[in-house]
Amino acid sequence: MSSLVDLNELSTLVPIVWPANPGKPKDIQRFLVKCPAGFPSPAADYVESGLDLNDYLVKHRASTFMFDVCGDSMRNVGILDGDKIVVDRSVEARHGDIIVAILNGEHTVKRLFAKDGIVELRAENPMYRPIRIKEAEELHVFGVVVGVVRNMRPCQR
User: Which neighbouring-strand residues pair with 31?
Assistant: First the structure.
């Protein structure tokens, strides 16, 4: 059982463009205070200048892509089924990075383990075993995951 990124023969592979219309993207308003995940804060009256998601997540526009995630193999690092991951192909993958890999022609998102001559793709869910890359297998690193986007209220289909 693996958690593959469904690309429909790479047809869903598109560069990130926020928003879809031309011109300067509209910034999203940011608050000056942190948002605690515990008790509410009365200090949420101050708004900072906008946050452009391109500036925040996209450092290399021509080499940045977005993938739809399916499966739960990366849930322990907060990458969930239905999320979108932002992947930068220009970032060199290192030991410990979360990557989109192409293993024997199939795409998957996993953590790269590359140490002491061992190369593995590791899930962040104990239900999945590491995938140790054997000499006869073909592994390509598509790119490094640099961000996650989640819609907390996805539309009903």
Answer: 47
Q: Is 77 helix (H, G, I), strand (E, B) or coil?
A: helix
Identified catalytic residue from 63, 73, 84, 90: 73
Mean pLDDT by 10 residues, the chain (157 residues): 40 44 51 58 60 83 90 96 93 96 93 94 96 92 94 74
Given 24, 110, 115, 134, the catalytic residue: 110
Look up residue 89 and give its amino acid. Answer: R
Cα separation of 35 and 141, whole Å? 35
Question: What integer pLDDT is reported at residue 111 of this predicted model?
Answer: 97
Active site annotation includes 59 = no
In the annotation, is 11 catalytic?
Answer: no
Q: Which residues have a Cβ under 8 Å from the Cβ of 144 and sit 6 or more positions away?
A: 87, 88, 91, 92, 93, 97, 98, 99
∠ at Cα 78 (73, 80), nearest 5°?
55
Provide the pLDDT for residue 48.
Answer: 62
DSSP reduced 3-state for 63: helix
